[in-house]
């Protein structure tokens, strides 16, 4: 709130409609855009109202699209819990079933080395701004927090002993 008052006080001399020859509407319109841009820029983060992608990969991306986006995987392995293949890359892993991505996983070491992107926005889980970005968890489990946006789920795994984040998954919430 103090920021708004400061901005308005700094801009108030510019809003004086004294003996000017310009049209007052032409003077005020650009200033309103400047104030709204400054107020938006002052916000530290944005609430994510959807989960479109993790590490640059969306759910239901086809196998062909995955290969175009990420290239040849370092390794392809059978997922031990699901009946799918896991395409393992340096920065993430993707579960592929029937030619489509059904989950995306990023481990902490991958995020530290390559960054963690949700919807193309760089996230730093260690800085504890996740509540601001994600809101209240839909479900809190022993091993982590689950956030839902429609049918899409984002789970942040936590070490039960330390509370440190232990991985993040993007998946179809209806499939779990």
UniProtKB/TrEMBL annotation:
<protein>
    <recommendedName>
        <fullName>Copper amine oxidase-like N-terminal domain-containing protein</fullName>
    </recommendedName>
</protein>
<feature type="signal peptide">
    <location>
        <begin position="1"/>
        <end position="17"/>
    </location>
</feature>
<keyword id="KW-0732">Signal</keyword>
């Amino acid at each position: 709130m103090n920021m708004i008052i400061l901005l308005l006080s700094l801009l108030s001399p510019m809003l004086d409609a004294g003996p000017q020859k310009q049209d007052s509407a032409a003077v005020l319109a650009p200033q309103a855009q400047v104030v709204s841009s400054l107020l938006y820029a002052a916000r530290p983060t944005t609430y994510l109202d959807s989960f479109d992608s993790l590490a640059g990969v969306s759910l239901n991306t086809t196998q062909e699209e995955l290969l175009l986006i990420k290239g040849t995987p370092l390794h392809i392995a059978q997922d031990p819990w699901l009946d799918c293949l896991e395409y393992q890359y340096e920065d993430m892993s993707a579960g592929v079933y029937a030619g489509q991505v059904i989950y995306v996983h990023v481990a902490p070491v991958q995020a530290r080395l390559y960054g963690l992107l949700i919807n193309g926005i760089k996230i730093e889980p260690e800085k504890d701004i996740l509540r601001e970005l994600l809101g209240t968890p839909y479900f809190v489990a022993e091993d982590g927090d689950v956030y839902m946006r429609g049918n899409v789920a984002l789970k942040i795994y936590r070490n039960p002993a330390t509370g440190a984040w232990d991985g993040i998954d993007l998946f179809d919430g209806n499939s779990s």
